[in-house]
Amino acid sequence: MTTTPSTRTTTRAAGAGWVRPLCWSAVALEGFDLVVLGVVLPVLLRDPAWGLDPAGASVIVTAGLLGVMAGALAVGPLADVIGRRATMIATVAGFSVLTLACAFAPNPEVLGVLRFLAGLGLGGVLPVALALVAEYAPTGRGSSATTVLMTGYHVGAVATALLGILLIGPLGWPAMFIAGAIPAVILLPLLWARLPESAAFLERRGRSRDSSWRSGPSGHSGRAERRNPLATLFRDGLARPTIAFWIASFMGLLLVYGLNTWLPEIMRSAGYALGAALALLLVLNVGAILGLLLAGTVANRIGVRPATIAWFAAATLFLALLSIRLPGIGVYVSVLLAGIFVFSAQVLVYAYVSQLYPAEGRGTALGTASGVGRLGAIAGPILGGALLQAGVAYPWGFYAFAVVALLGAVAVAVVGRAPSPT
């Protein structure tokens, strides 16, 4: 059956209202799963049965992030070829089952393998969700639609920190992985029943079928051109922006994962109790939610490029200020301000990518930016672990993170004013 313009319009209208809440929920689950190690590591590092040190913990974190990188690089282009709806359902199901399995890991080696496998699904969720939300966003609201979507990540992170405070003491660290898997029981049926397919994907598939039917046995005249999605990233003046986005994403994700993985332990090394250290992780992600709501509005008004540069620059300042030990509530205010700018800077990179590339390559552009950026996500925990191992994470870790944010600002500036997508 050929997909006609009228049926594509009907499908789009019927499902549009579900795109943002369902994608937001999937990203929230991703946020929970990707931050949960930062919550359980302070416990595992002090469990004699596991025998972990910061270097060994970094290996577990790195294994998971390698999986995330592989998933992002593979799933983004795959979704542009086979469709985004099925891809989203498969990735959520995969990482939820494997996150549940982490609760029963008997040793660090098994936990590392399970985190790698879960990462394959986790890496695919974000580029698919970003591409769908960007496609269904109202005209002129693409930046705020992207930043609101990414509040889901930090709501999941806040939930992780809260549940860590509530569950780890009475139930132990495995309860955190069980809690992260349970919501999928509700989300997966909703994705199956309500998430629409990408309208752009349906249109391309319809054109391909129509032209193949019209071409007849010769198979030449009228056949739709099949383009390699990866080629979209390097033609029509997009090569320099593509490389610059990869660098900016590397820096942004280094900050996100470095801080979410090691902030509690860095603060513990500075003399804070476990409860206070976990509370600071919660405050960091509350700041991220506030920053995302603000960043999208600012980007809609002044443009996504200047907003992204400004956010990375502000992140540089407030990360450097975290090196100053403040009394009482001052440290919470300082961490809150850092969270406002650090995390939304990376999300503005995604918003910029979503607006710059054409629809047929948007999933690939987001997937590769996220996938290459995962090298930064791997480097962040390794950097934090190395500084902790050397005993200099506080305050030098915050200086190192500030330099990374500054490099992110430079990379976005290098993007320049590339041609708009057609």
UniProtKB/TrEMBL annotation:
InterPro entries: MFS, MFS_dom, MFS_trans_sf, Sugar_transporter_CS
Molecular function per GO: carboxylic acid transmembrane transporter activity
Ranges annotated as spanning the membrane: 21-45, 57-79, 86-106, 112-134, 146-169, 175-195, 243-263, 269-295, 307-326, 332-353, 365-390, 396-416
Signal sequence segment: none
Membrane topology annotation: Multi-pass membrane protein
Annotated GO CC locations: plasma membrane
Keywords: Membrane, Transmembrane, Transmembrane helix
Domain Major facilitator superfamily (MFS) profile, residue spans: 19-420
PANTHER family documented for this protein: CARBOXYLIC ACID TRANSPORTER PROTEIN HOMOLOG (PTHR23508:SF10)
Record's protein name: Benzoate transport
Organism annotation: Actinomycetospora cinnamomea
